[in-house]
TrEMBL record:
<feature type="repeat" description="WD">
    <location>
        <begin position="30"/>
        <end position="63"/>
    </location>
</feature>
<dbReference type="InterPro" id="IPR036322">
    <property type="entry name" value="WD40_repeat_dom_sf"/>
</dbReference>
<feature type="repeat" description="WD">
    <location>
        <begin position="72"/>
        <end position="104"/>
    </location>
</feature>
<dbReference type="InterPro" id="IPR001680">
    <property type="entry name" value="WD40_rpt"/>
</dbReference>
<dbReference type="InterPro" id="IPR015943">
    <property type="entry name" value="WD40/YVTN_repeat-like_dom_sf"/>
</dbReference>
<feature type="region of interest" description="Disordered">
    <location>
        <begin position="173"/>
        <end position="205"/>
    </location>
</feature>
<comment type="function">
    <text>May function as a substrate receptor for CUL4-DDB1 E3 ubiquitin-protein ligase complex.</text>
</comment>
<dbReference type="GO" id="GO:0080008">
    <property type="term" value="C:Cul4-RING E3 ubiquitin ligase complex"/>
</dbReference>
<dbReference type="Pfam" id="PF00400">
    <property type="entry name" value="WD40"/>
</dbReference>
<feature type="compositionally biased region" description="Low complexity">
    <location>
        <begin position="173"/>
        <end position="182"/>
    </location>
</feature>
<comment type="similarity">
    <text>Belongs to the WD repeat DCAF10 family.</text>
</comment>
<keyword id="KW-0853">WD repeat</keyword>
<keyword id="KW-0677">Repeat</keyword>
<protein>
    <recommendedName>
        <fullName>DDB1- and CUL4-associated factor 10</fullName>
    </recommendedName>
</protein>
<dbReference type="InterPro" id="IPR039085">
    <property type="entry name" value="DCA10"/>
</dbReference>
């Protein structure tokens, strides 16, 4: 959070630490885990957590990196995501076992932290919290973006009757169903978007061949919403990350079965408020922008991020990164919100790697961007416009 350390998760059990200002290497945690390290999350300016394919989460203190603070056991498969609620000091993790687990760091000891299973669903890929921790977003390998509203991390969500999130669907007459597609689902308000806009005609002409449905599951409180973005015979891997203003979310979609199928970066706006009719399905996301991505690095999820002010997206693109904006002037979305879904604007492309870039991150305090590629190279940029 104080931008003094850049941490890097590596495929071969290592965690690297750098000074992002001087670019100097600080330390290598050569055996941070027993398998690939997937994600790193700072809890404050000194404590950070790492998760791994060895099914564990580790807590570290920057002041004493020779040993872990503790190791957390609870998942039964690869752990892919770490989130943290600074108000309650609850750590939230998700893994390929389909579980979202809550860890109480207030009662942490050398033997671990008390934990409980918060939620379970099949095909879970990624989980993120909005900055105010009022919503949880979950992406699945079967192509669903799931939104949990009115979040209370102190209570487990009981969805035993919905093991794979099936629901009775009420499909509107405007839902489009057919046999194939090659573009992302277009979500309008409240549940669909017509294909008469310029984006549909010029950039998404094949999007008329899609399955686009949305439903809302009311499980008492909190409420659960399921947005379907699956394309026929194509399975997606999605990365969900809330935008700093808490009103936006974006996903990076890529086919893991068809390497020549294009990937997409899609930006959605949260639509707050109650549904018009309680019995009607409601989608609280509206697609505002999207752009086609290079579907390279098959089998690896590409990690995107918003700039601290929310004006730009840094997105891995082949052997480099692209800086994307809502318009050519890097305006805030509120100043250039389109009536219909529009393409993101490419502001700048930066290429300095000799392999596929998997992750990119903005500094929270400086005009600086970091990117990491599959061969292990980390690059730091200070873009000038």
């Amino acid at each position: 959070p104080c931008r003094s350390v850049l941490t890097v998760a590596c495929e071969q059990t290592e965690v690297l630490l750098f000074d992002p200002i001087s670019s100097k290497h600080i330390k290598t945690l050569s055996e941070a885990h027993e398998d690939c390290v997937n994600n790193i999350r700072f809890l404050d300016n000194r404590l950070f957590a790492t998760c791994s394919d060895d099914t564990t989460i580790a807590l570290w203190d920057l002041r004493k990196l020779n040993t872990k603070v503790c190791t957390l056991h609870g998942h039964t498969s690869w752990v892919k995501n770490i989130e943290y609620d600074t108000n309650t000091r609850l750590l939230v993790t998700s893994g390929f076992d389909g579980n979202v687990i809550i860890w109480d760091t207030n009662r942490c000891t050398e033997d671990g932290c008390p934990h409980k299973k918060f939620f379970h669903t099949r095909f879970l890929m990624r989980m993120r919290l909005t900055p105010d921790c009022s919503k949880m977003l979950i992406s699945t390998s079967s192509g669903y973006l799931l939104i949990l509203h009115d979040l209370d991390l102190n209570k487990s969500l009981e969805v035993g009757s919905y093991p794979i999130l099936r629901a009775r669907r009420t499909t509107s007459s405007s839902d489009i169903t057919s046999s194939g597609s090659s573009g992302p689902r277009t979500v309008g308000s409240p549940c669909h978007q017509n294909d008469s806009g310029p984006l549909s005609e010029k950039h998404m002409s094949r999007s008329s061949q899609r399955e686009a449905r949305a439903c809302r599951l009311c499980l008492g409180a909190p409420a659960f919403e399921e947005v379907t973005s699956r394309l026929t015979q194509v399975h997606f891997k999605l990365k969900a990350q809330p935008e700093p203003s808490e009103h936006l979310n974006f996903t990076r979609c890529s086919s893991c079965k068809t390497p020549f199928f294009p990937g997409w970066t899609c930006v959605y706006e949260f639509q707050e408020g109650a549904p018009v009719r309680p019995v009607s399905p409601r989608c609280s996301l509206r697609l505002t922008h999207c752009i086609e991505e290079a579907n390279v690095g098959r089998g690896y999820i590409k990690e995107l991020c918003f700039s601290p002010d929310g004006r730009m997206i840094s997105s891995p693109h082949g052997f480099g990164i692209r800086l994307l904006g809502f318009d050519a002037h890097c305006s805030e979305l509120v100043d250039c919100l389109p009536k219909e879904a529009s393409p993101l604007k490419e502001i700048r492309s930066l290429y300095s790697h000799n392999d596929v870039v998997l992750t990119t991150k903005f500094s929270p305090t400086h005009c600086q961007i970091a990117s990491g590629c599959l061969s292990g190279r980390v690059s730091l940029y200070q873009p000038k416009f």
